[in-house]
Amino acid sequence: MSWADVGAAYGRTPGPCTRWHQLIGVDVDDLNGTEPGLPGVWDEPAAEGPTPPDLARALIAVLARHTATAESCWFGLWHGYGRWDFDRFPVFLTPGREEVLLSGALADVVSPVALDEFAELPDLWWPEDRAWCVGGDVDLTSTYVGGSPELIAELSAAPGLEAYPVGPHDLVG
């Protein structure tokens, strides 16, 4: 489901700082996952969690053109997933999270999907040359990308992506 389609059904236009509850017209305190949906438009609320695999693949195609180090990337995977034994891996802290530090090629960001349908993707990913950074969170419904103006313009125009430029002081969620 696209947020643009959901917004159109409610007479709203999503923008860079739109949150799911605003799009469907409910108070954030009333958002509990039991919203009835809108037949023919949506039947489940926007999923929270890391970047969905299809979206990640679409991002990879664009991001690879904006780094010289696509074969050398870093990934932060939330330690709290608990399905794997990460004790031998280094970790780093982000606000409210402990992330396992992994490395590999950009294409590896979707490699856990090959394991099973419930495999988790990294919350953070960036290339060795730091040309951009992708960020999400287990409690967010959006993925954020920081990068050059050229990268952001290409992402904003890419088919299959709903991308909006945000600034450093915009509230995200």
Characterize the structure shown.
The relative contact order is 0.18. The protein contains four helices and six strands. The protein folds into two domains: 46 residues, no CATH class; 105 residues, no CATH class. The chain has 173 residues and is an alpha+beta fold. The chain is 18% helix and 17% strand. Strand 2 and strand 3 form a beta hairpin.
Mean pLDDT: 88
Class per helix and strand makeup: alpha+beta
Low-pLDDT sequence parts? none
How are the strands of the largest sheet arranged? 2-3-1-4-5-6
List SSEs in N-to-C order. HHHEEEEEEH
| Fraction of residues in H or I helices | 10-25%
Question: How big is the Rg?
Answer: 17 Å
Number of helices: 4
Instruction: Give a short account of the largest sheet.
Output: 6 strands, antiparallel
The rounded distance between the terminal residues' Cα atoms is: 18 Å
Number of domains: 2
Number of strands: 6
